[in-house]
Amino acid sequence: MAHDMEQAKQPVSAALAGPYGHPLHPALVTVPIGAWVSSLVFDIGSRIVADPGFLNRGSLWLVAIGVVGALAAALVGALDLLAIPAGTPAFRTGLTHMSLNLAVTAAYVGGFFWRRPATAGPVAIGPLVLSAAALVVLAASGYLGGKLAYRYGVRVAAESTQAEGYRSAP
């Protein structure tokens, strides 16, 4: 079991997934999360302001930026998943996390085409509701991602390595 845990902490490819103790996936996921949360804020704002066209267009761009960011995060996340031994609770959690994220990304791709072309009016209620629902699923997936890192220690440095940061300077 200790070997399985140590395996999940090491990158499959440090050049692509980030070196030991510095995975790229958590940094990359900030792009789609930030873009998609901001797009929902723009969606809601477009239904409140007098001249909503700029928010409608901005939201369309944010959805697209989020999709591109999600694809980059997914590629690196898949490398992290490959480091987890199959048949373990951590691997099953990783598969669920990945599946939810792919469903969310697919929802945003569909939402992008549903919104096109962006109009001078507010964002339609359908794409707005789709974005809100996708963010709820993304939050559930994020919970699982946190479980992978903070409970199972996937791609997190071993406690012996972490202890270096708590030793008093000579």
Structure description:
The protein is elongated, with a radius of gyration of 19 Å. The protein contains eight helices and no strands. By secondary structure, it is mostly helical. The mean pLDDT is 93. Helix 4 runs antiparallel to helix 5 and helix 4 runs antiparallel to helix 7. The protein starts with a helix and ends in an 8-residue tail after the last helix.
Brief summary:
The chain is mainly alpha-helical and 170 residues long. Helices cover 71% and strands 0% of the residues. It is built from eight helices and no strands.
Order of helices and strands: HHHHHHHH
Residue fraction in strands: under 5%
How would you classify the helix and strand content by structural class? mainly alpha
Gyration radius (Cα, Å) is 19 Å
Describe the sheet with the most strands: none
Q: What's the total count of β strands? A: 0
Helicity range: over 70%
Which features characterize this protein?
mainly alpha, 170 residues, 71% helix
Task: Describe the secondary structure blueprint for this structure.
Elements: H1 2-9, H2 14-17, H3 25-28, H4 30-46, H5 53-82, H6 89-115, H7 125-151, H8 159-162
Helix pairs in contact: 4-5, 4-7, 5-6, 6-7
